[in-house]
Amino acid sequence: xxxxxxxxxxxxxxxxxxxxxxxxxxxxxxILMAIEIMLNASNLCLLSFSRYNSIPRGQVIALxxxxxxxxEAVIGLAIILNLSRVKKGIRADEDVNLLxx
Length: 101
Prior knowledge:
Elements: H1 4-24, H2 28-53, H3 57-86, H4 92-95
Helix pairs in contact: 1-2, 2-3
């Protein structure tokens, strides 16, 4: 059986990579992917704690997080696709002001 600390380490590593990618990337799709990576890291942590402690609440919360991540991806991609129709390239620091109206 794989120790719990390995799962926590991988979860921490994924979450750290997501945060770094979130702050360093200027592309909106990359930022959306960074958020997904952070949500999946939290899911891994919740599921590993749930598995090792035999408490199903972590699995239920992970299911909610997956649902929220799917909704976030759909809404985010719809906004990005509409922005890409207006402009050729999408940059987070310049093109988000177009959403203000």
